[in-house]
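Fold this sequence, please.
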Amino acid sequence: MNKKSILVTGGLGYIGSHTAVALIEKGYKVSIVDDLSNSSIDVLKKIKKITNISPDFFEFDLTDSSRVKKFLKKNNSFDGIIHFAAKKSVDESVRKPLDYYHNNIQSLINLLNHINTNIKFIFSSSCTVYGQAEKLPITEKTPLKKPESPYGNTKKICENILEDKTKIETQFGTVVLRYFNPIGAHHSSLIGEDPRNIPQNLVPIITQFAIGRLKKLTIYGDDYPTKDGTCIRDYIHIMDLADAHISALEYLFSNKKDNIYDVFNIGTGEGKTVKEVIDSFNKVSGKKIEYEISSRRKGDVISAFADTSKAKKVLNWSSKMSFEDAILSAWKWEQNK
């Protein structure tokens, strides 16, 4: 059995909780840090219900440097860290840029200041670092433009920090995973995407509207230069995304080279418009939901979908679950909450 110990920051959030489950099921010992600002302590019980194991849990804010130092001094045996803890709304980041720069960058710096230098580090990044790419699909060699939002810029800055840190630490290894758009839920329907405030991502907006938790469904812009006028995104099942973190860890642990810094796109390679997502939901749910059109949101790019051939070749990872499976699992989760 794998006895390596992994710290998952933001581990009660959407992606963090699903990755924690995948880690436990692979035999890793999991510890979670979360400040519960956009998550619930109930998720800890649900992780235990799924896996029959309760991860060690610590509640505090990673922007508190003295608290991070104290924690890592007392808990210094981690083999790896997967860093999810960050604010993640593109729209909110446009309205509250300083909150995003402080939270997302300071939390990473605090961790890097106090962790052991022989640790393996996986960073939760985003395709937003590419801005609006001139050529699709997006590869890891696609030039990074100025991100369209402060959120995307924090991810880009954090990547730069990690690259520079890796250069000076001989045993430190980093993998950056640039996610496209995670959707769906665990097959148990016990955990899924459940933001504390009004959701900012399309699929939970659709499911919450369909079940009556939201009063309207708005499409932000139908005048984009796409086949139906709405934005295109690459939607990946959350469990495929969770598995990518396992593959990245195994890559780092098995690689004997020093100063590893590597970047991978994690998506499906297929783009869906907003209207196609709604049509797919109607199909799998048997519902017919209505929407209204509003003006474009600041920070949204027109189209983004991934070339994932590098992840397939180097990490031996590729998405396995269908778009329809992801949509259906999200709807089952919404009904089960």
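The CA atoms of residues 248 and 254 lie 10 Å apart. The two ends are 33 Å apart (CA to CA).
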